[in-house]
Amino acid sequence: MPKVLISDAMDIIAEKILRENKIDVDVLIDLTDTKLLEIISLYDGLIVRSATKVTKNILDAADNLKIIGRAGAGVDNIDLKSATDKKIIVMNTPGGNTNATAEHTLALLLALSRKIPEANKSTHEGLWEKKKFKGNEIKGKTIGIIGFGNVGKKFAEMCFSLGLNILIKSKTFENYKQDYPNYRSADLNTILLQADIISFHCKPNSDGTSIINASEIEMMKNNAFIINTARGNLVSEKDLFEALKMGKIKGAAVDVFNKEPAKDSILFGLDNLILTPHIAASTEESQIIVAEMIANQFADYFNNNRIVNEVI
Ligand code: MLT
């Protein structure tokens, strides 16, 4: 019987589906790297979310590992090159948490525009500061969406339905922009100059560099917002901190950090910055979907030799 390790917290449905499909499962959360290294050779499959770092070291010790599954979209916690060198299949669950992530991004946009976090705090303190919390409407504003994968598409659809003008920066969008006559294709400079809101829905740069640094922020409108629910290094944290402190842009919302878990960050403590702990994709609904998807994909692989949603 194939043996699979689930090493990050996920819905119990994953374990249930694997067992029903005659796959032996161990669920061992919060393993240290040393412990994972010690036991990984016992397993034919490994299922992770984002906490487990599947490094070259781990893969070098994974003598029996055939498949790694990511219950989620991003695979930046998995050393894809080392996995390929060892002929280990990597698969993810694209689309499974798209709606959750798009909704969280929208929640951050509305919270920023209507100053919800500060208004909540002040009202709890009995201050009744009506004048201080005059917000802005998003209808009629221009949003620049960087990346047009599942989440970028879903978020654009939500924004369009709320009356925003949509600018899209994406190589793939160029190929099928005729299918989206309501959106405009734009390069980064156009977005920096024209957008009231910039939201990230793309992969990180492979060399780890940021797309938005001080010089890009300099080009933005003073009343603009930046939202990042994609990956931590897309916006330079140091430059974002300086810009927010100096009032170069109006505000930002960040769900993803350079170093996670972010127990200490240069971004902590700013009034015009909303922070959430990488929870954009974390809803009860989406976590069931991704757990179900990855377990069914593993069952298909071990029982039918079928590879679904491989990441290459
Ligand atoms: C993803 O890549 O799917 C999201 O960032 C959520 C997660 O880390 O699980």
Topology:
Layout: E1 3-6, H1 13-20, E2 24-27, H2 33-39, E3 45-48, H3 56-61, E4 67-70, H4 80-85, E5 89-91, H5 98-113, H6 116-124, E6 142-146, H7 150-161, E7 165-169, H8 171-176, E8 183-185, H9 188-194, E9 197-200, H10 214-219, E10 225-228, H11 237-245, E11 251-254, E12 273-275, H12 284-304
Parallel strand pairs: 1-2, 1-3, 3-4, 4-5, 6-7, 6-9, 7-8, 9-10, 10-11, 11-12
Helix pairs in contact: 1-12, 5-7
The chain binds D-malate.
Report on the structure:
Helix 1 packs parallel to helix 12 and helix 5 (98-113) packs across helix 7 (150-161). This protein has helices spanning 13-20, 33-39, 56-61, 80-85, 98-113, 116-124, 150-161, 171-176, 188-194, 214-219, 237-245, 284-304; strands spanning 3-6, 24-27, 45-48, 67-70, 89-91, 142-146, 165-169, 183-185, 197-200, 225-228, 251-254, 273-275. The chain has 12 helices and 12 strands. Helix 8 links the parallel strand 7 (165-169) and strand 8. The radius of gyration is 21 Å and the shape is globular. The strands form 2 sheets. Strands 8-7-6-9-10-11-12 form a 7-stranded parallel beta sheet, sandwiched between helices. The longest helix is centred in the last third of the chain and has 21 residues, at 284-304. With 312 residues, the chain is an alpha/beta fold. Bound molecules: D-malate. Residues 49-50, 72-74, 97, 281 line the site of D-malate (MLT).
